[in-house]
Amino acid sequence: MTPDRLSLNQWTTRRWSVREAVDGCVRHGIPAIGLWREAVADQGLAATAKLVTDAGLRVSSLCRGGFMTGPGLGLDDNRAAIDEAAALGAACLVLVVGGLPGVSPGGGPGPGFSRDLPGARARVAEALSVLAPYAAERGVRLALEPLHPVYCADRAVLSTLGQALDLAEPYASERVGVVVDSFHVWWDPEVLTQIARASGRIASYQVSDFLVPLPADPLLGRGMMGDGVIDFGPITAAVEAAGYRGDVEVEIFNADVWAADPDEVLATMKRRFAATVG
Amino acid sequence: MTPDRLSLNQWTTRRWSVREAVDGCVRHGIPAIGLWREAVADQGLAATAKLVTDAGLRVSSLCRGGFMTGPGLGLDDNRAAIDEAAALGAACLVLVVGGLPGVSPGGGPGPGFSRDLPGARARVAEALSVLAPYAAERGVRLALEPLHPVYCADRAVLSTLGQALDLAEPYASERVGVVVDSFHVWWDPEVLTQIARASGRIASYQVSDFLVPLPADPLLGRGMMGDGVIDFGPITAAVEAAGYRGDVEVEIFNADVWAADPDEVLATMKRRFAATVG
C-alpha cells in the first residue's frame, strides 16, 4: 500500500490538537487523518471540518461510536457521533461496541454488572438495527471493530472478524462495514479467510504492532510497526485482495510513543509503514 | 457437575509439594488431582505414583507437555512427559503448544525469533504427528489446550477450540483430545458450538475465572470462580452435553491465591465450585 494511502489516526499523536495534527499531516505529506470525537469537540466541529478541508486531507475515520451494551444501548450518543461523522465527511464511523454491562473500560465490574455475554452481543445487534438506518440517511458508513479478546469484558464483546461480519450481514456493505485492525486480529487462525469473506465490506484498515510482553495496561500494548510480533505482509495482501482501496490508519496507543516528539513519531511512522505495511 | 468430579490442579496450591497436595485432597474429600511435571520431579515419579495410588486419588491430568514450535519441536521432552503421564496413570497429558519461535513465555522476542505464525502452527501439527503414535503405544491421551489469544505470541499459537479440534481431527478421539479451560475460551463467540463439536474429544475441563482488570502480568489474571466475569453455567452445560464425564480441575494462577493458606483455598474452591460450576 503506497504512501498516498497513509493516514494518521490522531490518537497516535495524542497530545496534538486537531489543528496541530492537521498541520503535522501537511508538513509530512500525509494525505489523510483519522479523527477522535473528544479532540474534535475540543477544536469545534465546524472548525475541524474547515481545517481538514482547507488542508486537503481526507478524513479516513471518526473514532468512535459504540458502547451499546449498557442501558439505552447508547443510542443518543451514537446518533450524535453519526451526525459528527456526516459533518466531517468521514469515510466511516468506527464502532467499539462495549463490553459486558456494568464493566467500565479498563475498570472492573460495577453497578449493573452482568455476566450475560450472549445478551450483551444481542444488544449490539439491536442497537445496530436502530443506528444503521439513521446512518444511512446521513450517508455515514458504520464500521464494526472487533477488538482483541483480551478486551471482551470491558471494551468490546465483538471479538473476531467473523463475528463482525455476521453482525454486518443484514445490511448493505456500503452502509455497515468492518474494521481490520492488525493489533486486534493478527492471532486469529481465521483472519485471512475472514478478510477474504469481508470483500467489499472493509471500511477501515488500521495498523499497529502487538508488543510482547504487553505492558501492565494492555490497552497500551500497541507499538510502531516492526516493534512487535505481527507479520503485516499477509494481512495487507489479504486486505488488498478483498478490494479495499481506502486509507490505512496508523493507530498506536503507547505511552512511549505519546511521550515522544510527535514530528519524530510521524517521520518514524512513514518509514515503518513503507518497510512493513506498504 | 457434582463434588465427586472436583479435581485440584496442584498449581492452584503451588507452594504445596505433591505430598502436601495429595494430603490436602484427602483432608478435604477431593477425589482427583492434576499434577505438574516440575512438582512430580521434585517428589520423584515413583514416589508420586505411590502417593496418589495409596490415597485413592485419580490423576485428572499431567501438566504439561508442548512447546513444540521451536527447533527440534520439543520431541525429546514431550516423549519424557508422555512416559511420566503413563507412569502416573494420568487421564491425559495437557499440551501447551508454544508461541512464536524465539519468544520465551512471559518474555519478548529473542534469538531465533520469527513472525511466521502459520509456520509455527504447522510445526505443532508436525510434532503431533510424531507424538500421537508414541503416546498411543503407551496408553496416554494427549490433550491440546487452546490458550487465550493474549498468549498467542509467547505461550500458545493454538488460540481457539475450533483450531484445536481441527488439529486433533486426524487422530482417534481417545488418543488426541482437547482441553476446555474456561479462562481461555469464555470470550469465544463459537465456544458453545465448538464444545458441541468436541463431543467425545474433551479430555479435560479446567475452570478458573477471568479477572477484570487483568493484573500487570496477564498470566496471573485467573481468579477463583465467582471473582471474575465468566458465566460458568452455559459452558458447563455444554461440556456435559458433549458427553464429558471426567474430572473438573480448578486451575488458578493468581498471586493472592498463592499467598493464601492452601487449606483455606481448598475450602473456598469447594464452595465456589458448587455455587458456580457444579
Structure explained in plain terms:
The structure is a homodimer of 278-residue chains. Chain A has eleven helices and ten strands. Chain A has 278 residues and is of the alpha/beta class. In chain A, strands 1-2-3-4-5-6-7-10 form an eight-stranded parallel beta barrel, surrounded by five helices. A two-stranded antiparallel ribbon of chain A has the order 8-9. In chain A, helix 1 packs parallel to helix 3 and helix 4 packs parallel to helix 5. The first copy, chain A, is globular. Chain A starts with 5 loop residues before the first strand and ends with a helix. Chains A and B meet through helix 5 of A and helix 5 of B.
Secondary structure elements and their pairing?
The structure is a homodimer of 278-residue chains.
Chain A: E1 6-9, H1 18-28, E2 32-36, H2 37-43, H3 45-55, E3 58-66, H4 75-88, E4 93-96, H5 117-137, E5 142-144, H6 161-168, E6 176-181, H7 182-185, H8 191-197, E7 202-207, E8 209-210, E9 222-223, H9 232-241, E10 248-250, H10 255-259, H11 262-277
Parallel strand pairs in A: 1-2, 1-10, 2-3, 3-4, 4-5, 5-6, 6-7, 7-10
Antiparallel strand pairs in A: 8-9
Helix pairs in contact in A: 1-3, 4-5, 8-9
Short descriptors:
8-stranded parallel β-barrel; homodimer; 10 strands; two-stranded antiparallel ribbon; 278 residues
Please state roughly what percent of the residues of chain A sit in beta strands, choosing from under 5%, 5-15%, 15-25%, 25-35%, 35-45% or over 45%: 15-25%
Largest inter-chain contact set: A-B, 35 and 36 residues
Q: What is the number of beta strands of chain A? A: 10
Question: Mean pLDDT score of chain A, rounded?
Answer: 97
Share of helical residues of chain A: 40-55%
Secondary structure tally, helices of chain A: 11
- Largest sheet: spatial strand order of chain A: 1-2-3-4-5-6-7-10
Class based on secondary structure composition and strand pairing of chain A: alpha/beta
**Unreliable runs of chain A, pLDDT <50, ≥5 residues?**
none
Which series of helices and strands of chain A comes N to C? Answer: EHEHHEHEHEHEHHEEEHEHH
Largest sheet of chain A: 8 strands, parallel, barrel
Distance between the termini of chain A: 4 Å
